Amino acid sequence: MKSKKDKPAPKEEARSDSPDSAATSSVRLNDLAARLLQLNGAETGELEPIREELLELARDTEVREEVRTLAAEALLKLDELLYGKRADAADAVLAEVNAILGNAIETEDAAEDETETVASVEPQTPASSPVEPKRVNEVKFEPELPPDADLDLLRDFVTESLEQIEAAEASLLALEVDPDDMESVNTVFRAFHTIKGTSGFLGLVPIKEFAHGAESLLSRVREGEVRYSGGYADLSLRSVDVIKELIRSIDGALSGEELVKPAEYDELLAILCHPEDAGITDESESTDATPRLGDLLVSQGKLQREEVEQIVSGKASERIGEALVRSGKAKTADVAQSLRTQRKIAHPGESVGDASVRVRTDRLDRLIDMVGELVIAHSMVAQDETVADGKHQDLSRKASQVGKIVRELQDLSMSLRMVPLKPAFQKVNRLVRDLSQKAGKKVCLETQGDDTEIDRNMVDVIRDPLVHMVRNAIDHGIEAPEDRVAAGKLEEGHITLIASHSGGSVVVELRDDGKGLNKERIIDKAVRLGLIDSATGMSESEIHNLIFRPGFSTAEQVTEVSGRGVGMDVVRRNIEALRGRVDITSEFGRGCCFKMVLPLTMAITDGMLVQVGGERYIIPTVSIVKTFRPQSEQLSTIAGRGEMVMLRGELLPLYRLHRLLNIENSVEDPTRGLLVIISIGEAKYGLLVDELLGQQQVVAKSLPKGISKVKGVSGAAILGDGRVGLILDSSELGAIARQDILDVGTETTLETVSPAMVN
Amino acid sequence: MAQVVRTLDRVEENADENVRSFLTFLLGSEQYGVEILKVQEIIGLLPITRVPNTRSHVKGLVNLRGKILMVIDLRLRFGMEAVEPTEESCIIFVRVQKIEMGLIVDKVSDVLDIPEKDIDKDQTFSTDCLLGIGKVDGKARLLLDLDRVCEVGA
Fold first, then answer.
1. Is any Cβ of chain A less than 8 angstroms from the Cβ of B98?
2. HSE-up of A656 (CA within 13 Å, CB side)?
3. Chain B residues near residue A716 by CB distance under 8 angstroms
4. What is the pTM of this model?
């Protein structure tokens, strides 16, 4: 079916990859179109390579003639722009070029379908009838990746596509606010388009077909044929979900899992092809959260509501702003200003064109390591006698100059790993939309400080606790609309997500204006569960924090009554694993606020340096309650439970670090050493060390490969003097110690029961 | 295809003539060797941080210019008695299968080129850590299989 025709142009020999050339030229066209879309009219420099590509395509004898002709046409148009004729109307020209390319792609695709069925390069199902217009409905879904797939390419595809999807999601949500935001439509379109192109290239037919459907829908929005709202909005969001699922599934397949067809795949694909047949309209069920353009103008007194409605009803497919201006009802400047206001509401603080480079994380880590070394090396020089003795002022001035640079370099290198919380918050945005719809509640999410930066690794790990808390707030916190009205609140519930920096930490707060925690119920339940005897002497916050106790979570009844407590212990555990903490404050009937305090980065640990025998260890400061030298009367030994220490009326187990780690020559007498009181979750214990050497921030690293897991040690770090120090895992240490005591306890049960002096 | 086959044949023919380079060192009175290609660097003793509850030959962790690496004592690894480190003791940092680690040896000697045919691989050795025995000037060098040495290193 090749249109090799009788053209006397055998300048270029037939390529060896001729069976693929149809597919390749389609990919090339798609690629070109995508590149053009991303262009800004002004960047003529970027046009050159595109021109080259077009030229090649047009000259390529392997490419179908129709397509070559179209490519040449596009080339002509492009040249008009490039060589000055219409340089002033860059965007218009680009649009024309793109339209031509669109034609070319369609021609190519149509022809390709034909060749496919005839040539049948792949073993297609024998039943597959010749070309049908609704071919898309019967996409074959292979449970495996294409046999000749390049795994590296696929991996890149997965990463890139997920990023594209993320951008698309963000834009779709922006479109919820402003359905006429063409920039967002373009972003989504580009995402679908690129995924379609690449997946086609990689032979991932199901993804390609689906992305094609989604792209078609968006292109209709782009051309103003339909308006992005109501059913179309839902359809787009659902499509994004399916594509995301497809890509995840590819990711899974890379690690040997089977490719799974998303449940909604067939249904959605069919709807995407003919949305109107499935009863999709642009009629919206709920009102938009952000003021529409018309509303804005009315509220500013520039227009009467009736006027706006008249215009809108008359020209549904047109942009409202344009329609208003054309009809002479509003001044262009007013509309433009309102549009800007609207944009500001939709994208607060969005910066345009932050250039970025993708860097492998291991290189980044290495860079940070090296800078750390530089800091140590510099301090060695600065503290060297020759420099520090004050006799060589010139030298010490130079050394301190180097010091400044080194410190700046260190700050900079640490900031390299930081990313804004925005993507994580955007996911919450989506979650709130879906969950509130499902729960039949009206909820509006407000985010503040989403440009707060946090370590890249942290973004991934805080997502789960965040999702959990948001789910909780919507499921149990926010009341049903009628209950809210009855309680004298706004029908629409408000959830506020705030991020900020505070000291060396990131604070993420999640507030809702729901029903809040019922103190009495919590106390009741806690007493019944045996968590506390009574609430006497407990502060309000202590009572609220009871919901983080394990066991509280499984109490279904309380969940229904007080509305909180589902898996909150899991949330707390996760956050503590990140060396952070979580608090809750609540006012009954008024709402609830979860406050997560997280370290800026997992890489840096605030540690207490302790000495035991000849060794030094780092204990993470978050788990330390206090340190003190015990008096002999505070110490006792209890059979089966080992040594104990009495602290403010509380009897805590006492563990000796040197015994847990088998260290010799350390302080044996607790009254001569120091006790570090450690609190992990609900467990508290005292850890005996020789002495404290001071506090230090260290860059935590995992133990090197090749060494087996050491119990009680979570990692290692390079200390200020350049030596390696081990970071202790407080919760694991407690576990080892308890196990040791159990072991010993079963051997020797005959011990003194009465308190006795230790040593 | 034929071209490929011919080339492969030539590669095999050359193999026996191939010469491999080994870094040799002393443990007690015995000469050992490791493939030079796997050696990253040789450095005098560094301060070592002991890691609790590990096998005795694992000496601990060192900071090699910002990288935290494990160091093992080869003497202890091979069941020889421990000795106090001397001026000549060094750490040879090697890299096998993406794992980088240091080996403490008594003294580094030199680099030897040993032709493949002079490496005796067919003996049954008492330890499975040997690649073979290299004969140089009539003296035997115990050539270590670093993959094995490091595999059970921890």
1. yes
2. 22
3. 49, 61, 68
4. 0.51
